[in-house]
Amino acid sequence: MALIRSCLAALCLGVLGLLAAGLVQGAAIELREFDDPVLEQRYRSLTASLRCPTCENQAINDSDAPVSGDMRERVYLLLHEGVSDMEIRDHMVQRFGDYVLYNPRLEGRTFLLWGLPAALVLLGGVLVILVVRARRNASASALTPEERARLDALINRERTE
Amino acid sequence: MKRRLLLLLPLAGFLVLSVFLYQGLSLNPFHRDSALMARDFPEFDLATLEDAERRVDRSLLTTGEVTLVNVWGEWCPECKREMPQLLDLAERGVRLVGISYKDTREKGLGFLEEFGDPFEINIFDPDGELAFELGVYGAPETFLVDADGVIRYHHTGYIAPGEVREKILPEVEKWR
């Protein structure tokens, strides 16, 4: 009984610790007030789709890096100046490079990146069609007359036995 | 026989892709080029660290001389380790301009007093507004600006002692 009780106590402490860690973590990223829910939604999706330039794989809405804070601030300000999402992304790319976009743009340099998967799917489809066709033709013309005769003979022997 | 060879095609494709991706593993994402390469140094209007009354702007970098612009902060340990290299560069006649990044004036001046001051002048950027325009994401960072104020080279992070001769000086010579 004492054992169960101490286990429970340890569990509670652990949960509390996790909660506290969560609070500390959350406190690093500021809360912003929005009067307009549309702006808030755009802010959320923009900060989730821009990558923090100094942390290898975190969006700026999820990063404690100072530069991410500056970028969030800039996104917030630009949104309130009536700048479009596209222009805000451009604004960041002009300063921090393509690295900050989680979805690279379709342009000459990224053509292979976007085109290759589509090309591979197409190629796969063509291959499947070719293979299926080849098999269909093969089954139709597989037996020569001699083979057919031999097959018939075998089948007949089976029947008579 | 030809058909047999054709069967090896997917394997060949896979190998090519593997080599390509394997190389990607050893790329350091922090060695990417600055987005400002070959572009004009951004406009700014800020006070200097040394004198709060004195304002400087982009004309500071269009003097006809190649300039290294170094972004530093008192809070940045790598910047302290970098100072001997910057002093060395200044001694070799390279013009250096500092950007005091996200510091207070006292701390910035204290830093220069303690570690030396290779800079002709320091731009005081406590909110990081110029640094944001430059796409700075950590300090130290160094930009080489040519005689016409165009950014020609970018070094992210600390300049190691060997890199003064191997990287920085050749770039300075190249754009002079």
Description:
The complex is a heterodimer of chains A (161) and B (176). Chain A has 161 residues and is mostly helical. Helix content of chain A is 70%, strand content 0%. In chain A, helix 2 runs antiparallel to helix 3 (66-80). Chain B has 176 residues and is α/β, with parallel strands linked by helices. Chain B has one domain: Glutaredoxin. Chain B has helices at 2-7, 9-25, 77-91, 105-115, 129-133, 161-175, and strands at 45-47, 55-57, 67-72, 95-101, 121-125, 141-145, 151-156. Classes of the chains: A mainly alpha (161), B alpha/beta (176). The A-B interface holds A 53-54, 56, 65-67, 70, 74, 93-99 and B 29-30, 32-36, 102, 128, 132-138. Chain A: One of its GO terms (biological process) is cytochrome complex assembly. Chain A: InterPro entries: C-type_cytochrome_biogenesis, CcmH/CycL/Ccl2/NrfF_N, CcmH/CycL/NrfF/Ccl2_sf. Chain A: Possible subunit of a heme lyase.
CATH superfamily of chain B: Glutaredoxin
User: How many separate helices of chain A?
Assistant: 6
* Average of the residue pLDDT scores of chain A: 84
Which structural class do the helices and strands of chain A define? mainly alpha
- Alpha-carbon distance between the two ends of chain A: 79 Å
Query: What is the ordering of alpha helices and beta strands of chain B?
Result: HHEEEHEHEHEEH
* Oligomerization status of the protein chains: heterodimer
Gross CATH architecture of chain B: 3-Layer(aba) Sandwich
Proportion of helical residues of chain B: 25-40%
GO molecular function (chain B): disulfide oxidoreductase activity
Membrane topology (chain B): Single-pass membrane protein
Main location (chain B): membrane
Domain Thioredoxin (chain B): 35-174
Which descriptors apply to this entry?
heterodimer, A: 161 residues, mainly alpha, B: 176 residues, alpha/beta, Glutaredoxin, 5-stranded mixed β-sheet, 7 strands, Periplasmic_diS_OxRdtase_DsbE (chain B), disulfide oxidoreductase activity (chain B)
